[in-house]
Every structure is written in structure tokens, then in C-alpha cells.
Hints:
CATH class: Alpha Beta
Shape: globular
Radius of gyration: 15 Å
Oligomer: single chain
Amino acid sequence: MGQGAYSWRDDPSVPPFPDDRPLVLFDGDCALCSGWARTVLTRDRARLFRLAPVQSPLGRALMVHHGLDPEDPSTMLLLENGRAFGKTEGSIRVASRLGWPHRATILLRLIPSGLRDAVYDQIARRRRLIPGRRWCAMPGPDLDLADRVLG
């Protein structure tokens, strides 16, 4: 993820997409990850974030571009201001903009990133054991998804 700013724009394998707002890539086959994506869509009152499942053509291309396995994504990925953030840093950056109680996740930065990410990795390894709906269960029609879900 140490690519230069907006490096995906120069990668012919990445389909063009609007990158003027943060984009969250998530595992659409994981109930935990899809639940988080639905939380972002419902709690993001400013409509700041766009989302795309890793299983979409755009999601796959961006994961590969950043050296991550789209077949078994080990992290969500936040693309913001031309940079990629994964694991706890990406999650904290997203959650801190969703209002209370999610905003309190900013306190996790008091924990060293190596320790935070080790816990994240343990949860990520077990995430598909959590039963539940997958991304195909989109939020209800009361939530306007225009310009918010890419892929």
C-alpha cells in the first residue's frame, strides 16, 4: 500500500472511477464486513463515503493494485486523498466520521498500530465464521444509494 498518491489512475487494469471522495472496499461475501458497509451507508449522514465490494471488477482491480488478494481479502481498504489505508487505520478513519458511538474509535490510536492490527488480523481470519446476510441484502429503499455504491 506504499504506492504514490492516486497511483491507481496510472494503472490500466483499474477501471476509471470517481475518486473525489473516500472509497471503502469491503468483502461482500462476509456478513461482518457487509454489516459494517451497511453501517457506513446508514450512519454517514454527510454522504462522504462511497463503497464497493471487493468482488466487483473495480474492487478486485484496486485490491490487486495495492498488493492484496481479492480472493481472500484480509482487510477492508480505504482510499482517501490518493492514499490507501487498511486494517485498523482505515477502519478508524471511517468510523471516526460516523458520529457517536463510532467516533470513539479514534481512541484506538492510543494503542500501538502493530498491536491493533494483530487483533484485526485475528478477527479477519475468523470473520466468515460469523453467520448472517451478505452484501446482496442491500439496505432498504429508504436509503438513497445513488453515487454511493460503485463496482
